Amino acid sequence: MSDHPNDVRSQPEGGFLRRAAWQFTDITRRYRTPHSQMTKALRWSLMALRIYLVVLILLLVIKFASLVH
User: Fold this and answer.
1) Which residue in 22, 50, 46, 23 sits closest to 34, CA to CA?
2) I need a surface site. Which of 7, 45, 54, 69 has the fewest CB within 10 A?
3) 14 — alpha (psi -120 to 50), left (phi > 0) or beta?
């Protein structure tokens, strides 16, 4: 067994999960607010991509429903 502190086997039970949860909350806290300004063009592009994604998902659901029925 390794004595290295980052070795999962050397962590007490739940140590790995605690460390992973801490890293997740740290990353979430760091990137909660945007660090750059969004232009109108970028905002419209992202909205178009969201709409496109929703349409693709709806088409997949409709296709699946028609195959099952």
Assistant:
1) 46
2) 69
3) left
Q: Which of 2, 6, 26 is nearest to 16 (CA)?
A: 6
Q: What is the pTM of this model?
A: 0.50
Average pLDDT of every residue of the chain: 84
Q: Tell me, what DSSP letter sits at residue 65? A: H
Q: What is the pLDDT of residues 39-54, one digit of tens each?
A: 999 999 999 999 999 9
User: Alpha-carbon Rg of the chain, whole angstroms?
Assistant: 22
* Tokens found for residue 31: 């990137």
Query: What is the four-CA torsion angle of 49, 51, 52, 53, rounded to 10 degrees?
Result: 90
Q: Domains of the chain: which residue ranges?
A: 1-33, 37-69
**In the predicted model, is pLDDT for residue 37 greater than 90?**
no
